UniProtKB/TrEMBL annotation:
One of its GO terms (biological process) is L-serine catabolic process. This is L-serine ammonia-lyase. Residues 1-285 form the Tryptophan synthase beta chain-like PALP domain. Pathway: Carbohydrate biosynthesis; gluconeogenesis. InterPro entries: Ser/Thr_Dehydratase (IPR050147), Ser/Thr_deHydtase_PyrdxlP-BS (IPR000634), TrpB-like_PALP (IPR001926), TrpB-like_PALP_sf (IPR036052). Keywords: Cytoplasm, Gluconeogenesis, Lyase, Pyridoxal phosphate.
Length: 315
């Protein structure tokens, strides 16, 4: 239930660990300033971590970032939120080439650049989700772990955590993407890293056009399966979580729950799932969700004959 993290998503794990590692290399007299380029949950996680460390954090987001997320990042206590460029790549370049050098020149602060997913320290932080799962299962190996993939930082953490326990080739890992954001699925089909020309899914937190090299490598293992669902199937997952668990999450997270509905997971696995089986869904969370968005998804899934008013679905 990563939606319960102070920043609203699992990103606190990776970014928290990354920042502590970066800070440990600095001299005590230096004046650090955190910089993050992300429109969404990574920016929010950076600000929450920086506040916990009493450090300033500047976030650069592209114009595609919603007003809701900009306002949440501001309210969380960002030093500054700057909107620049059409895409994350534009915002990121502006952050590294203009914002960070300018801030350093003006204030003498040491800038710490925080990437959203492509760093081994981020994966190590995300891997803590696996040790917690195993504690909760009292050491029993889960047979299936379900998690979604944007750039692959969460998935890499799950695989790294499983490897540490010697389960990296036995536990089945289902790597979920939505159609229109399926950069891992495309890379697997091609046999090499593919950069998508654009993102057409509404699950924007999965909207990395290219996964990390390590993500493709892990996903080529036999026990890993890439699964792509439609946005409306992710919406079903969000509606189901709200109805059954009183929990609000983004489409990027609902996709994992959508897989459990309407016999989809059985079709993906080619077998039934046993009642006694340990199946773990990483509810990755996300702050880009409102009651109004959920109401829209409810209408959408009812129209396509998905969940009749939230009742009667098979789970
Ligand atoms: C960032 C994010 C993802 C994808 O994580 P990656 O590490 O980029 O693969 C999934 N769900 C939510 C809610 C996110 O914020």
């Amino acid at each position: 239930m990563e939606n319960l993290q102070p920043s609203g998503s699992f990103k606190s794990r990776g970014i928290g660990h990354y920042l502590l590692t970066q800070l440990s290399t600095l001299s005590p007299s230096s004046n650090p300033h955190i910089f993050s380029s992300s429109g969404g949950n990574a920016g929010l996680a950076s600000v929450h971590a920086s506040r916990a460390l009493s450090l300033p954090c500047t976030v650069v987001v592209p114009f595609s970032t919603s007003a809701l997320m900009v306002s949440k990042i501001r309210t969380a206590g960002a030093h500054a939120v700057i909107q620049h460029g059409a895409t994350w790549a534009d915002a990121d370049a502006y952050l590294r080439e203009i914002v960070m050098p300018t801030q350093h020149r003006l204030s003498g602060e040491v800038g710490i650049y925080t990437p959203p997913f492509d760093h081994v320290d981020i994966w190590t932080g995300n891997a803590t989700v696996v040790s917690e799962i195993v504690n909760q299962l009292q050491g029993v190996r889960p047979s299936i772990i379900i998690c979604s993939v944007g750039g692959g930082g969460l998935f890499n953490g799950v695989m790294q955590g499983l490897d540490t326990l010697g389960w990296g080739h036995t536990t089945t890992v289902l790597a979920l993407e939505t159609a229109g954001a399926a950069s891992l699925s495309a890379s697997l089909a091609a046999g090499h890293l593919i950069t998508l020309p654009g993102i057409t899914s509404r699950a924007t937190s999965l909207g990395a056009t290219r996964v990390t090299a390590k993500t493709l490598e892990y996903a080529q293992r036999e026990n890993v399966k890439s699964v792509v669902l439609e946005d409306h199937e992710a919406a079903e997952g969000c509606v189901m979580l709200a109805d059954e668990e009183r929990v609000m999450v983004e489409l990027a997270c609902g996709v994992n729950v959508g897989l459990l509905l309407k016999g989809r997971i059985e079709r993906v696995l080619g077998r039934t799932v046993d009642k006694e089986e340990r199946l773990v869904v990483v509810v990755c969370g996300g702050s880009g969700v409102t009651v109004e968005m959920l109401a829209g998804w409810r209408e959408e899934v009812t129209e396509v004959g998905a969940l009749p008013n939230g009742n009667g679905h098979e789970a």
